[in-house]
Write a structure and sequence with these properties.
By secondary structure, this protein is α+β, with helices and mostly antiparallel strands. The protein has 16 helices and twelve strands. Helix 13 packs antiparallel against helix 14. The structure holds a DNA duplex (18 and 18 nucleotides).
Length: 414
DNA sequence: TCTGGGGTCCTAGGACCC
DNA sequence: TCTGGGGTCCTAGGACCC
């Protein structure tokens, strides 16, 4: 039950990574550009310019496929620092329009603009002002969707692209959604789309012909949410959160795909050490302690397993994370099996560690201090400058580059 | 065509407890 | 020998998002 009408903006930067790269190299402007790596690297497209999209190139597509579809495309490595910087600039602009800003990812945000009419005027005028400010302050284009829920704002910003503003007038939500493809609903991917098609549901409006209970039977909890979404409601899950509500991270993970598959135990364990260090570092930075450590292992043929272990007491120490990850690895790795990817994942966070006896607590504290010092060194001299002894073992200690294409997770503030 | 990395949420089964 | 019911924790896998 909606007690009062909300005005939500969804602001989405247009071809964000590509646009930022264009600022650094104006030569790229107007050309087919693919960000994410080189044309014959192992990896996928992070972002494609509108020119490249005309050839069928889109994000998440293997780089090699993109090269075949659009041979003349320019391939550019990603620059996460640049994207973070421009994301922060965008955040500053947004914050000057509403105190309730929530970055949903590096290039999109929700604003609760409810009750700002006195200051900013009616929604469309506010949006146009915001649009202009974004352009003048960041030199980047964005699109803005306006609606009475996150869902409507999100869907309408997609329809406003590129470089547009779209307002769905309150009361018109269902009419706006009805003709759209079910795939346009956030959360409906390839699989759900196929399942809906099998029931003869192609457009959002078709959902209205079915009872909520029928959808629940077919799709469980998600089916119920889907019924609500067809009416434009933020039904279920993350969408229900108030804009700007502070939500703690639920997991921290790092993974690495080798350029060449490897079955070398020493190299694999060395990678695990590096990944454990990266996870431990992030835990310490955010003051979190994890109880569950998970290993992810992907073989050459892409079969993937995950194996988890939950500790009696939470940790944020590289050594303890590594110990668990390695134990899981040794227990589950098919000896000699060629590995494509390794990952280390931490979850079940607690703010305070269960210290156990005092001596033990002191020992851990010393470790923590040593590791924090290492963190500062890394800040200064780069990720490869410091490693614990076991990570140094062997000649395979390689540098894991910061994910060139990756996106940070949901963060409240950049 | 040969498939990244970092997240969230959901399901389902088994263990264990009352 | 035929076998409850609910709650919680843990693990594995998968859909989905950017």
């Amino acid at each position: 039950m909606v007690l009062f009408l909300r005005t939500i903006f969804h602001v989405d930067m247009d071809a964000f990574f590509v646009s930022v790269e264009e600022l650094f190299d104006p030569e790229l402007k107007g050309k087919a550009v693919v960000v994410g790596g080189q044309r014959n690297e192992r990896g996928v497209v992070s972002a494609a310019s509108y020119e490249a999209r005309k050839f069928g190139v889109h994000s998440a597509m293997p780089l090699r496929t993109a090269a075949k579809l659009c041979p003349r495309a320019i391939f550019v490595d990603g620059h996460p620092e640049r994207y973070r910087e421009y994301s922060e600039r965008a955040y500053r602009v947004l914050s000057s329009f509403s105190p309730l800003v929530e970055m949903a990812s590096i290039d999109e945000a929700y604003l609760d603009m409810t009750g700002t009419e006195r200051l900013h005027g009616p929604p469309l005028r506010a949006a146009h002002n915001l649009h202009q400010r974004m352009k003048s302050d960041t030199r980047l284009n964005c699109s803005i969707g306006i609606g009475s829920s996150r869902l409507i704002a999100k869907v309408s910003s997609a329809k406003a692209k590129p470089n547009g503003v779209l307002w769905v007038v309150p009361g018109q939500e269902a009419r706006f959604l009805a003709p759209l493809d079910v795939r346009d609903i956030p959360g409906v991917g390839k699989v759900t789309e196929q399942n809906l098609h099998a029931l003869g549901i192609q457009r959002v409006g078709d959902l209205g012909r079915f009872e909520d209970s029928f959808l629940e039977q077919h799709f469980g909890k998600w089916g119920l949410a889907l019924a609500g979404k067809a009416r434009g409601e933020d039904a279920g899950g993350w969408f229900d959160n108030e804009v700007g509500a502070d939500i703690d991270a639920k997991s921290i993970s790092h993974e690495h795909t080798y350029n060449q598959d490897t079955g070398n135990a020493e190299q694999l364990e060395s990678t695990l050490m590096r990944l454990s260090e990266m996870v431990g570092r992030r835990l310490r930075e955010s003051g979190l302690h994890a109880r569950t450590i998970q290993l992810k292992l992907r073989y050459k043929d892409f079969t993937t397993i995950t194996r988890a272990h939950t500790l009696p007491a939470p940790t944020q120490l590289d050594t303890e994370i590594f110990e668990q990850a390695r134990a899981l690895f040794r227990k589950n790795w098919r000896k000699g099996g060629e590995v494509r990817l390794l990952g280390v994942h931490a979850s079940s966070f607690e703010r305070q560690p269960d210290q156990g006896d005092l001596l033990e607590g002191a020992r851990r504290e010393r470790w923590k201090q040593a590791l924090s010092a290492a963190d500062r060194l890394r800040d200064k001299f780069g990720e490869s400058s410091v490693a614990l002894a076991s990570g140094m073992k062997g000649s395979f200690r390689e540098r894991i580059h910061e994910n060139p294409a990756g996106l940070p997770g949901k963060t409240r503030k950049p």
